[in-house]
């Protein structure tokens, strides 16, 4: 099996290294990842400048390719030009921070996986919930590996992204289990503090908060909060199929 490993935290991120070490058990792993941190980059791509690449030692066994671009750039470039052949699987992560709920829309980690699915390669996005302690990436990688094995054994699905999140755990603690759950779509409560810089010029600081309602208890956000590994299947088709049959939309036909 040929696996492309990427992320949005940069090619030197500890989560990527931890993922690399467990993924080697499945086959050959090629690393193509951003040169710099691209958190919350979403699905941006580079079209008005060059995509410069550099060889970067990831560990003693693997030299990866860093890309001066976004996570989606890395996947497109890797599949089209860098890899010797189309990969069997793309893995994005391990991200430092959960990608559940509406954060999926902003996530560069998930965007890389969605780009792979768009290009016809099964993909898995891996994200680790953070707390105030020191993250145990090695332990998280072992937990992720269990879910990856289960996903592969059940059959990889072309065009689908499996978005996997793991609670903030440290060895030897274990998650309560695994839950396949829908994405929570409740929005953040966006708030912006207006402040002044030392020269008296105004600027704004995002102080958004998120409140989980009782109607959201069977979603990825709630299950992760409760200590479960969450798996949510995602797709890149944004068509609202139900609305296609809505009379208000049908009446737009001319």
Q: What number of structural domains do the residues give?
A: 1
Roughly what percent helix?
A: 25-40%
Please report the total strand number as a whole number.
11
Beta-strand fraction estimate: 15-25%
Helix and strand content put the structural class at: alpha/beta
What ranges have pLDDT less than 50 throughout 5 or more consecutive residues?
Answer: none
The value of Rg in angstroms is 19 Å
Q: Termini distance?
A: 50 Å
Main sheet: strand order: 3-4-2-1-5-6-7-11-8
- What is the third-level CATH name, the topology? Stationary-phase Survival Protein Sure Homolog, Chain: A
Overall spatial form: globular
Largest sheet: 9 strands, mixed
The overall average pLDDT, rounded, is 95
- Please name the CATH architecture: 3-Layer(aba) Sandwich
How does this model look, in words?
This protein has 254 residues and is α/β, with parallel strands linked by helices. It has a single domain (2-185, 215-250), classed as 3-Layer(aba) Sandwich (Stationary-phase Survival Protein Sure Homolog, Chain: A). 26% of the residues lie in helices and 24% in strands. The protein is built from seven helices and eleven strands. The strands form two sheets. The chain has a nine-stranded mixed β-sheet with strand order 3-4-2-1-5-6-7-11-8, sandwiched between helices. Strands 9-10 form a two-stranded antiparallel ribbon. α1 (14-23) packs across α5. It is globular and about 55 Å long. The relative contact order is 0.14.
């Amino acid at each position: 099996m040929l696996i492309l490993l990427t992320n949005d935290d940069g090619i030197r991120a500890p989560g990527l290294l931890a993922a690399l070490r467990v993924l080697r058990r499945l086959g050959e792993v090629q690393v193509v990842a951003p040169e710099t941190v691209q958190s919350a980059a979403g699905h941006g791509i580079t079209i008005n400048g060059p995509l410069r690449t550099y060889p970067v030692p990831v560990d003693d066994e693997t030299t990866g390719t860093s890309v001066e671009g976004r996570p989606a750039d890395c996947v497109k470039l890797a599949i089209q030009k860098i890899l010797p052949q189309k990969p069997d699987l793309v893995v994005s992560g391990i991200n430092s921070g959960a990608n559940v709920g509406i954060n999926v829309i902003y996530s560069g980690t998930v965007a890389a996986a969605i780009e792979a699915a768009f290009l016809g390669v099964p993909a898995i996005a891996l994200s680790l919930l953070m707390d105030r302690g020191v993250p145990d990436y090695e332990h998280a990688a072992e937990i992720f590996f269990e879910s990856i094995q289960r996903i592969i054994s059940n059959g990889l699905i072309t065009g689908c992204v499996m978005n996997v999140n793991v609670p903030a755990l440290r060895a030897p603690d274990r998650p309560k289990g695994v839950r396949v759950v829908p994405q929570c779509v409740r929005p953040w409560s966006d708030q912006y503090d207006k402040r002044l810089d030392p020269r008296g010029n105004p600027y704004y600081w995002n102080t958004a908060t998120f409140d989980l309602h009782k109607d959201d208890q069977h979603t990825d956000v709630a299950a992760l909060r409760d200590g479960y590994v969450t798996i949510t299947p995602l797709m890149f088709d944004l068509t609202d199929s139900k609305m296609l049959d809505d009379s208000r939309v049908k009446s737009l036909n001319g």
